[in-house]
Automatic annotation (TrEMBL):
Short name of one Pfam family: DUF2797
Protein name: DUF2797 domain-containing protein
Natural source organism: Marixanthomonas spongiae
Tree of life domain: Bacteria
InterPro entries the record matches: DUF2797
């Protein structure tokens, strides 16, 4: 079987285990069904996810020009504390910013290699946790807009990590943590503006990734240097494909790359 299209991050469906899908214009592929099969990836060309032109991808699936222009790639995406729609203040496109920022947001603790704090729209739970490869996570604050989530995250960063060690996450070099205890310990650091939104009574969510065999050391596949790769798929975790020879491929990191994928 042969599939072709521009890579975008895999769609997911929570379950035991999580189901992963590659969505192309004319093809829809359940990646779990490729486990234990020989899969090849062939890089064909670039296609910016915004302008769709064949321009080199700069970041997040966008070409350089789009990345510095469109509201989907503004700074407040990665730094929620920079959100200003709640003040009616435009960054790149107020209409768009209101639509995304002025909706319920969650501040969570997730454990993928260590406990970290993060922010996501409420509609993105548990998708966001799956994308990060967290095996456990818990919502700790639910606020009405992105700004409040952002300043809460910034305040908590002084007391808990905000980064994942992706190598440990992929090697499954992890330990279970009691996230309820973490939440209770961090409660006092939630800023005053967000204290009333603290969630005191929920429990952690556990996630199960479809991995048959974890890599022992990692080789990252870079399609610019290695435009053709073939290997037996042994697992899917976060947005990574894990192959038998310890090669890992970050699908999200290659958004905007047009590839053909062959199976079997
Ligand atoms: Zn573009």
């Amino acid at each position: 079987m042969n599939y072709e299209g521009v890579l975008t991050k895999m769609k997911t469906e929570n379950g035991s285990p999580i189901q992963y899908y590659l969505v192309f214009e004319n093809d829809f592929l359940n990646v779990n069904q490729l486990l234990d099969k020989k899969v090849s990836i062939n890089f064909l060309k670039y296609q910016c996810l915004n302008c769709r032109l064949e321009k080199k991808i700069y970041r997040q699936g966008f070409c350089y020009d789009c990345f510095y222009e469109i509201p989907q790639a503004a700074d407040w995406i990665m730094k929620p504390e920079l959100s200003t729609a709640h003040l009616d203040k435009e960054d790149r496109d107020l209409e768009y910013e209101k639509g995304v920022q002025l909706q319920p947001h969650i501040v969570y603790l997730a454990n993928s290699s260590n406990v970290k704090v993060g922010v996501t729209r409420k509609t993105q739970v548990p998708t966001r946790w799956i994308d990060q490869g967290a095996h456990e996570a818990i919502e700790i604050v639910e606020v009405p807009n992105r700004y409040l989530a952002g300043i809460t995250e910034v305040a908590l960063k002084d007391h808990v990590a905000d980064k994942t060690n992706w190598r440990n996450m992929l090697k499954n070099d992890i330990k279970d943590e009691n996230l309820v205890e973490w939440r209770d310990r961090l409660k006092k650091y939630v800023p005053d503006e967000a204290k009333e939104y603290f969630i005191a009574n929920n429990i952690e969510t556990n996630l199960e990734f479809p991995v048959l065999q974890y890599p022992t050391k990692l080789k990252s596949l870079n399609l610019q240097k290695t435009p053709f790769f073939e290997g037996v798929l042994k697992g899917i975790k976060a947005q990574y494909l894990i192959f038998e020879d310890n090669t890992v491929f970050n699908v999200r990191g290659n958004e905007g790359y047009v590839v053909s994928i062959s199976v079997g």
